[in-house]
Design goal:
rod-shaped, 3 helices, mainly alpha
Length: 95
């Protein structure tokens, strides 16, 4: 399985998130001298938060595409048609 060039920034951001998680956890322990149980709770919460941010950031390019598609649809709705279907001018069918 080949990896694409977009996997590299995602991997780098994941590594940075883990490093920041460890740093913040140790800072919290040093400042507040928490019990081991509190450390595990905080560490787990920060890890899960970092993972959620990493997974949500994968959809960032899709958001841009969705905005562009929505702009095209609204431009289509705002377009003035060449034929006015509500006009009473012109020829009328004879029955």
């Amino acid at each position: 399985m080949s990896s694409s060039h977009t996997d590299v920034p995602l991997l780098a951001s994941s590594i940075i998130c883990v490093q920041l998680t460890v740093l913040f956890a140790f800072v919290f322990i040093y400042i507040y001298i928490w019990h081991v149980l509190y450390f595990c709770r905080v560490f787990g919460a920060i890890i899960f938060g970092a993972m959620a941010i990493g997974q949500a950031s994968q959809f960032a390019p899709d958001v841009g595409k969705a905005k562009a598609a929505a702009a095209k649809i609204f431009a289509l709705f705002d377009r003035e048609p060449l034929i006015d279907s509500y006009s009473t001018d012109g020829e009328k069918p004879v029955c």
